[in-house]
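[Meeting: bench + compute handoff]

Bench side (C.D.) handed over the final construct sequence. Compute side (W.E.) agreed to return the predicted structure before the next meeting so the bench team could plan truncations. Sequence as handed over:
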Amino acid sequence: MTIRFSRTSHFWISATLVANLFFTTSPSLTNADEGMIPVSSLNQIDLKARGIELTAEELFNAQSVSLVDGICRVNGCTGSFVSDQGLIITNHHCAFDAIQKASTAERDLLTHGFMAANLKEEIPAPGYTVRVTEDSIDVSDKVLAAVNDKMTGAERAKAIEQRRKELEIQAEKEHMGLRAEVAEMFAGKSYYLFLYTYLKDVRLVFAPPASVGNFGGEVDNWEWPRHTGDFSFMRAYTSPDGKSATYSPENVPYQPKRVIKVNPAGVLENDAVFLLGYPGRTVRHQTASFLQYERDLRLPTIVELYRWQISVMNTAGENDRAVAIKHATRTKSLANVEKRSRGQLQGIGRAKIVEQKIAEEEAMQKFIDADPARKAKYGETLSNIAKIYQEISTAAPLELNLNELRSACRAASYAWFIVDAAYERQKGDIDREQPYMERNWEQSLASLKVSHSDWHRPTDAIMLAGMLDRLKRTPKSNEVAPLQTILAGNDLFAISEDMMTATKLGDWAFVDACLKSTPDQLKKVDDPLLKLVLDLYPTYLRIREKNKEREGRLSQLSGDLIDIKRLFLANQFVPDANATLRFTSGHVKQYTPADAVIKRPISTLQGVIEKTTGVDPFITPEPLLKKYAAKEFGPYLHPELKQVPVAILYDTDTTGGNSGSPVLNAKGELVGVNFDRCFEATINDFAWNADYSRSIGVDIRYVLWITGIVYGADHLMKEMGVNQ
């Protein structure tokens, strides 16, 4: 059965039927609770009981324009169209890479901020894309028709991957100008094909200084209260005929179907709010064996590796602003993941999530064993999943470090892309790995070039030496033949220095030439780092093949797990987040993270002043201090607190990818921009709890005060329809 909820076709089936694919038939959800709900399933929840005045059809309507048409995906974040000229509000940290790429030591936009006075002054954001969801089609039957029970794990994974590619290519031929992606909703069970308007000309419009947009830095990251003005404005462009196009001076602002209305009155404590956005990835339907792998191996490794890399880059840029700017995006990204991973480790322990999951699975196993038919079909599902994660855990130390070798060392990552592309692009298009298919090649090259522009040879030498040292201490690394001679050396830093001095991978012209070469031609190139990656390539291919084999086995077992979980719970649940459009709701709400501690849900400008020390990360720019001293607050004072609100706290269900999501009031008006979670809620990816799961957004009143009053961007205020 193929089900569509479409803006490009009149063939559709009601969202009620579609929702049954995601929910069981138990009673509707009525309260603010767990669930990043697919927008097609909104009529399965009681919106009125959640305090929302809009109907499901006003939020999402397959046949006409609705609120979701004003929501877009900005790279890995979310954004909202706040004018009919393609103006997007998102987070400062989502626009950070564009700000960094446009910065130099002489023109430091990170430090001083940026404001374009008109369209001509807006700065291209290389590597950025904007996507708007246009259509969604259930293709589960078509995908699963490609597999059978006789397949090996690898065969199953490849068959599903192949079918997904085929459906994407076919959809793009049928819907010229749209981008197609097949998303897995429930592993091994349900798949949806999403069609997107795909905009490739994105420009920076306004960004406050990082001392506003990243006030508190990593000290305050994942913490509450926050006093961070984490917002920026960007704009999407099309060709003059309205089609998606890469940057050109002739391009014109994109005209969205729907504009999200900005409400400068903001919210009060206990007000109902909801978010629409593209949450990245949650793993709440995973098993205890997966959680044990995360807790015992992957997360501790990430924390250790990323702390070290951050330290190396911070030291490199300590006395050289140009180097610091080169590393800024990467450092910020790694620091965010590192602290989140620490929070997840802490949360897994404190909330006893593994123990709870084990208890749930023991009860479910008893339920399975109680019925002969269930036992025959599902009796070994959990134990077989556990065996795969034991395999993954055994292989993890070597595999994680080998993968990080080609990630921590950026030149090695360029070499990997070159080598992998050379082999993959010899294949037929449908048989290639996704980055090297013709439909993705242009964007893959653009991303590579953006990354390459930040390369710093001395830092990379340290990264390479550090990863080689880790591998030397990793069991079974001596079984990787190309590393044996290198790891036998006494001075790995000297070896790395020699490689970095000799490699030409820091020269884009060299990289570009290599990208046009065949594998045989690459083998003749005299470059030590390229040669190392070429020698390691068979090892990486074996890891890739093994991962596909595990993926295929887990896919089949996960499908069975979902089936038996539905029977066991006799209750509804939604699919894990997967970067597709979702809804979540709650209230502006305080919380108690520890005994005798109550944290109120609205922070204010007074807190910014109190935290300001003049030392990074608590520097406040002079224009803000002057407006505060002069009490020029405009209409943005909170009626009870008598201060300009800065950030708000609410009990919605969010994760990575919800960065930039609009915080909307009961009428669907913009009252904030989501940017973080509190530290206790880093565990959201694994589990959600009403007591501690809190999300954080910048209050729209602070956005407007900074934009209009502090920095005088009156043209943007007018464009958004806001009167000061």
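W.E. noted at the follow-up: The first strand starts at residue 3 and ends at 6. C.D. will use this when planning the next construct.
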